[in-house]
From TrEMBL, chains A, B:
Protein's UniProt name: MaoC family dehydratase
InterPro entries attached to this UniProt entry: HotDog_dom_sf (IPR029069), MaoC-like_dom (IPR002539), MCH/BMMD (IPR052342)
Upper lineage: Bacteria, Pseudomonadati, Pseudomonadota, Alphaproteobacteria, Hyphomicrobiales
Gene3D superfamilies in the record: Hotdog Thioesterase (3.10.129.10)
Occurrences of domain MaoC-like (ranges): 19-119
Highest taxon in the source lineage: Bacteria
Parts forming coiled coils: none
Family annotation (Pfam families): MaoC_dehydratas (PF01575)
PANTHER family cross-referenced by the UniProt entry: BETA-METHYLMALYL-COA DEHYDRATASE, MONOAMINE OXIDASE-RELATED
């Protein structure tokens, strides 16, 4: 099949990675209407949906759902971390040290922190990244340390 | 202001919670078009977008983004865990032991596993939940252990 793919195609295999290797994403702005749309569907709480009531919340004003920050961060990681056959994560520790607000511009810095070749399956390994999402002030709004399946280069390629 | 809120209003304060307390959500089906729409916006990878190519992926068929499972799980948690002033999470460990597929029906079981009153701020505490997202076969597709700010009942209420 030949068609224009909407997704980036990665090229890095397990043997191309090293501890400390870094990847930097482009920037993406979080728009107010998208913040409310996401929250309305997936995180319908007053501090994500109503400016007036949000002023009395812990955030002090309308804030994006942490899951919206996570989803946008994933988009930026998919574009900037070019692992062959994509990013399939088993999970990891996630935290939101600061909230994201409408109008903020996010970018993601990803760094390879662990590389563990599989003992039972010689065609792959598990790589741990440290992915920091920063806002336009350079403040960290999310840290996620996913464990990702990374493939070795096929012998016949 | 009086208007119909689209969000649930919680009533439980820190002193209403106990270790082992459980909350069970309703069920929600993951539809194919929503799976593709979410992935197209936030996780544009071939195994989330193209049935034919997904057959050759680790998933074996088109699978939902883990962040879509997380977002839908949040919706179910917001509806089923009625903490006063809502659910504001600082983060936690998340894992996806199995993929979610279009047509799957998810529900979330949440359990209180830790209650830590704040030493510096007497009006609140930090509560850790264990939130398991299950599919229609009873298989665990996500485990998330969020740390959530929970408020004490105001003395004047």
């Amino acid at each position: 099949m030949t068609f224009e793919r909407p997704w980036p195609k990665g090229h890095l295999h397990l043997e191309d990675l090293s501890i400390g290797q870094r990847f930097e994403s482009r920037e993406q702005r979080m728009e107010l209407d998208e913040v409310k749309e996401f929250a309305g569907r997936y995180d319908p709480q007053f501090f994500h949906l109503d400016e007036e009531e949000a002023a009395g919340s812990l955030f002090g004003r309308l804030a994006a759902s942490g899951w919206h920050t996570a989803a946008n961060s994933m988009r930026l990681m998919v574009e900037s971390v070019p692992f062959a056959r994509g990013l399939i994560g088993a999970g990891g520790e996630i935290s939101w040290p600061k909230a994201t607000f409408p109008g903020d511009t996010l970018r993601v810095l990803s760094e390879v922190v662990e590389i563990a070749p599989s003992r039972s399956r010689p065609d792959r390994g598990m790589v741990t990244l440290k992915c920091q999402t920063l806002n336009q002030h350079g403040e960290i709004v999310q840290v996620f340390n996913p464990r990702i399946v990374v493939w070795r280069r096929p012998a016949t390629e």
